[in-house]
Amino acid sequence: MLFMFFVLCSALTPALCCDWLDQRFSHVNNKCLTHLKLMGDPLTEEESPVPFPYDLYQSTRNTQVLESQLLFIRDSLKLISKLYRHGNHSSVAWNTDKTEHFLMNIHRQTKELNNCLPVKKKVNVTLRKYYKRLTKSTLDRTGGGTAYWELIRMETKRHLDQLEMLVSIITSRRRSAASPH
């Protein structure tokens, strides 16, 4: 009986998570984007020294494996959070409350996605390497100068926008699969 309970729970966990994705992810992600925008000056137009991984997002959008997509979203959010906890960003004049609310919402999304995933899997190697290169090329080389923190903020917006697109595709596929043909 206990075994059946665990099987049922593991089967329902991704489905319940998808309900959270369908109903709440966009709302919380929009809060993140709003706080990100309001926490400092207008976002920079500067290009990152590390090319944005559009191809990685594309391959994740193209996969049909929901768990892989959920892992990618969760790990992206974890790595974004890690960026902002890297070093000292006192050189930038960000609104402390907006910054804290931004990080709290990133943490909330990560926590909700952790509830969906039955196993602890390692971060996608390519994704991890991208964030490591981004950190080394910006924050580590400059000691966390203002211009580079602003660059991180712009890159974060790009990631949150791409994650929103990925979640939209996931929810659209779920609706299509659930509708009678």
> Which residues form runs of ≥5 with pLDDT under 50?
2-13
Strand content: under 5%
Average pLDDT metric: 85
Shape: globular
What is the radius of gyration computed over CA atoms, rounded to a whole number of angstroms? Answer: 18 Å
Helix content range:
over 70%
- Strand count: 0
Task: Sketch the topology as an H/E string, one letter per element.
Answer: HHHHHH
**Largest sheet, strands/sense/barrel:** none
The class by helix and strand makeup works out as mainly alpha
N- and C-termini, Cα separation: 36 Å
Account of the protein in words:
- The protein has 181 residues and is mostly helical.
- It contains 6 helices and no strands.
Question: What is shown here, in short?
Answer:
Helices cover 76% and strands 0% of the residues. By secondary structure, the protein is mainly α.
Key terms for this structure?
181 residues; disordered N terminus
Secondary structure topology:
Layout: H1 2-38, H2 54-62, H3 66-84, H4 96-116, H5 125-142, H6 146-178
Helix pairs in contact: 1-4, 1-6, 2-6, 3-4, 3-5, 3-6, 5-6
